[in-house]
Request: fold
Amino acid sequence: MDIYQLTAHEIRDMIKEKKISSKEATQSALARIHAVEDKVESYVTVLEEEALAQAEAIDANIASGEAGALAGVPMALKDNMCTKGILTTCSSKMLYNFKPPYNATVTEKLLEAGTVLLGKVNMDEFAMGSSTETSHFKKTKNPYDITKVPGGSSGGSAACVAADEAYFSLGSDTGGSIRQPASLCGCVGMKPTYGSVSRYGLIAFASSLDQIGPLAKDVTDCAMVLNQIAGHDPKDSTSVNIQHPDFEKALTGDIKGLKIGVPKEYFGAGISGDVSAAVHAALDNMKAEGAQYTDMSLPLNEYALPAYYMISSAEASSNLARFDGVKYGFRAEKFDDLIDLYCQTRSEGFGAEVKRRIMIGTYALSSGYYDAYYKKAQQVRTMIMNDFTKAFETYDVLVTPASPTTAFGIGEKTSDPLQMYMADICTVSVNIGGLPAIVIPCGYDASGLPIGIQIIGKPFDEATVLNAAFALEKTITKVKPNL
Amino acid sequence: MKYETVIGLEVHAELATKTKIFCGCKNEFGGEPNTRCCPVCTGMPGTLPVLNKAVVDYAIKAGLATNCTITKYGKQDRKNYFYPDLPKAYQISQFDLPLCQNGYVEIDVNGEKRRIGITRIHIEEDAGKLIHDDYGNESMADYNRCGVPLIEIVSEPDLRSPEEARIYLETLKSILEYTEVSDCKMQEGSLRCDVNLSIRPVGQEEFGTRCEMKNVNSFRAAVRAMEYEQKRQAEILDEGGVVEQETRRWDDVRGVSTPMRSKEDAQDYRYFPEPDLVPIVVSDEWVEEIRKTIPELPEERKARYVNEYSLPEYDAFILTSSKKMADFFDAAVKEGAKPKPVSNWLMGDISKILNDKELEPGDIPFTPAQLAKMIALIEKGTISNSAAKKVLDAMFAQPDDPEKLVEKLGLAQVSDEGAILEMVNGVLAQNPQSIADYKAGKDKALGFLVGQVMRISKGKANPQIINKLLKDALDKA
Reply:
């Protein structure tokens, strides 16, 4: 077995036990990138020399006994997380040349933990999309079938982990952007509770919904990474000041008596038979491990998708207004005056999907429409949150499919935005509720494409979610992609 | 037709907090362009604001000093618009839940008390500055001022003349200065105001159509802009026209305002709750803590000056309209000087010199004790009033003990009656005609003779003694 195929926690342990060096782990990942990147195209920027230099420095630290918790483990970051002096493009022409003057808090924490940054990975432009096809630079492919999309918006983060081009990565999730690509690429992805991981340095899409989380090869890796990035950050007012448990230690595999709610709304029209069957088989596996599951209802969840598109687009229209060609990034070459500078720069710099969301959001916030759209959506949000609160009075976790179908074809949904938006149908309500949720593979369809299952937990109860996923994972036989 | 003017003001005051509103940058004026800012206040992608608690403290203090109700559950909102000096393309401000509401300020208009309503006070961040000159066709942006904390104080349309508006502005300024909420340095733009003005026929209940005036950079400019605007609107109405609701730009150099944008072009700021910040929850305890820090305000101090020191209302108003001036006054009185002479010097010569030198009361270079000593020297007769003016000039140039300055400048007054009598006799001997004129009832002659004695004494003889001795001698002659 090649080093690059190992999980992140195996790499961590082997480095700690001095069985391999960080340099070897890094070289192996870089070799894998060289071998498969032509097919997968998950990276926007590969930091070959920098990563090797960093690995050597960490090896020296390890030798002198000063190593962080993840010392020497190579990883990749989604290209919307700020890395000081390193291109951070949001896969947009608008930021094609943008090198932030500072590190995101997650970047800072992972560097302190001793990880090695292999590069920055591809995404839907400004995280808007469900297939990574809206990237200005390249279309990332699904490692299980390179004619299929990897999902999105963290398609690069999912594909690079699935293709063994990184031992783990970080993604961001506003409406499913970690979990849906994790589902389509057969890896583990987790969106933590809103407020548990700092958003400082994450280039904002929708501030009240965005959350950073890990994409990993298994649940243990996911818990291990979450241990490093979770926690209060004084630089983010929305990050919550509570002590989190050791998530890795919470992985006992014991789910006896775990009460699982299965909302029937997630198994209706649009959900493929394969997906539904695999999720139910997984539920039976969990039952065999001692958990109990019950069909139940989240009646207001059907309004989550429209509420999500109102709120996220409204916030995005404001968050993306700063990209105006004045201070950094792309500026149109020809313009007549100030207004024209704005118009030309934004017309040329943003892609079609980003422009669509900015227009929807601007409209929703406009005088005379605010009450009917933005305010109404916020009211719906409160009602959906109440729906969840009520459900969690009875259940410890809720289990749903992660995506209505397995990976779809490249170009299949790009001409119909509404159909593309439906790809988030299983995941958006979790962001609306601010809840933690994990997606892990629970089977494969007839053509070998991964099927994901989503486990949703109570706010700040990541430990229970992770442990449930850990118990289920043991009952699933995983298949690596054949690249 | 006779019109009544209706004015409402929006005053922006920069808060005197140590750091900016959403980051750790120092809150200081000036500096080389783009050296007093960081990724947060320049709105770099990915950065987040964190509210400086001191900003809330200061705003609550301003609210309490203007009799406002403090909002227990407040929030911040984004005001969206594009401009190169606004790096996030939105300003974090407050929309429907401002920190302070429903207050008032009492002003004194010709001895009559008027209560001017304060609609609201909210907190917000300042923008940067654009520099258009010196770079040919280019405009340069300086983001140093980004994130400087501001409060916007919105008044009710309770003001009825530019003069009332001026008094309101002066009163508000002194309240902010007394509470140390703002340093109120006008020349550094710490206080700025937008004017809303309409006119209506006297007796009419409903308001006329208002115009808003921007770019009003000083109180003097505000008064001029208001005077111009009430006249402009009256002319329109007199000619049977209709005042259009619009925003106008005041040009202080030309003394005119020009249309900036009409009601139809009014910007839609698309306010919505700032999702990067949490609600501002203010407890009663917090409010009470701040209430304890509010010092004696100008109105109370004014009353004290009138009651305790028997100063005229006018003196008390002028002195207390600047906290630094009033503090100086109090300190000089504490040093033993009599209140009225201290007041006279502060309101008279000292204010004149400050004005000439474009200085503020806080810039007086000498100490209150030194002023008190100078006044004591006048009272003892050591120096004359006119000599004291020279001492004052010297104290402005190079502050020192007034006694030493009197000596150095040779300004000590001659009060020795024998010496002065000698001079008086000499002058009388040389001016028989003046003696005759005086006897004939021409009072002017006495003045001439006093002047002659003064001349001989090189201005040092005590004028009261000269007067007394001259009169005695003339009566005997």
Summary: Chain B has a mean pLDDT of 92.
